[in-house]
Amino acid sequence: MEIDFPNGKKLRLMVGDITKIRVDAIVNAANSGLRGGGGVDGAIHRAGGSTIMRELDEIRASSGDCPTGSAVVTTAGALPAQYVIHAVGPIYQDGKHGEPAQLSSCYRKALELAGERGARTVSFPAISTGAFGYPAAEAADIALASVAQHFEQTESGVREVLFVLFDQGFYDLHARAASRRFHVDRLERHA
C-alpha cells in the first residue's frame, strides 16, 4: 500500500525483513539500555554486525541510556543503509501512563534524526508491539499519525517512509489503520 502526500512525500506499507530493505536509515525498536535484544533489535544487530554495538557502547559511555520516547543514531554496519536510528518505545502498561505520547515521540524523534543526517528514505518496524506489549492496532494508529504529522508539519528532507512489517497480520492491521486515517480503499495481500 502507498499513500501519497501533497508535498511529494510517500508512506508505504510492506511485508518483509527490515534488514534487507535498501533505505538511507533503518529504525530499530531498541531498548533504553541500547544493549541489543530480541525481535527486530536482535535481527538488526545480527545483520549489521559488531560495528553497531561498538558505536552504541560509545554513546552509552558518553550519554548513558536512551530515554523512552527518544532515539540515537549509529552507522549501519553491513546493513543496506547508511544509518540505524535506535528508537526507544514504551513498555505498555495500560495506555494511561503516557505510552501514546512516548510512542509518538520516538517516531517523531527518529524522523527528526533521519532528516538531520540527510536521509531521504526511512524504514520502520512496528515499534513496541513485540516484547514491549503495545497493542498492535493502537500502535499502528499512533505510528501512522506521527509520520503523517511529520510529513505535513516539517520541512525535513525525508521523502519516503516504509513500514516494513514482519507478517501479513501486522500488515493488515497497519493497512486498516491507513485506510481509516487516509481514506484509502485498498488492502493488498502479500505472500
Structure description:
This protein is of the alpha/beta class and 191 residues long. The protein has a single domain (2-182), classed as Leucine Aminopeptidase, subunit E, domain 1, CATH 3.40.220.10. It contains 5 helices and 7 strands. It has helices at 39-48, 50-63, 99-116, 136-153, 168-182, and strands spanning 2-4, 10-15, 25-30, 71-75, 83-88, 121-124, 160-165. The protein has a 7-stranded mixed β-sheet with strand order 1-2-7-6-3-5-4, with helices on both faces. α3 crosses α4 (136-153). It starts with a strand and ends in a 9-residue tail after the last helix. The model is unreliable at 187-191 (pLDDT under 50).
Largest β sheet strand count, sense and barrel closure: 7 strands, mixed
The residue-averaged pLDDT reads: 93
The CATH architecture category equals 3-Layer(aba) Sandwich
Counting structural domains, the number is 1
In CATH, the homologous superfamily goes by the name Leucine Aminopeptidase, subunit E, domain 1
List low-pLDDT spans: 187-191
CATH top level assignment: Alpha Beta
Please count the beta strands (DSSP E, at least 2 residues each): 7
Beta-strand percentage range: 15-25%
Question: What is the helical fraction, as a range of percent?
Answer: 25-40%
Q: State the helix count.
A: 5
Q: Give the overall silhouette.
A: globular
In which order are the strands of the major sheet placed? 1-2-7-6-3-5-4
| Helix and strand sequence | EEEHHEEHEHEH
Structural class: alpha/beta
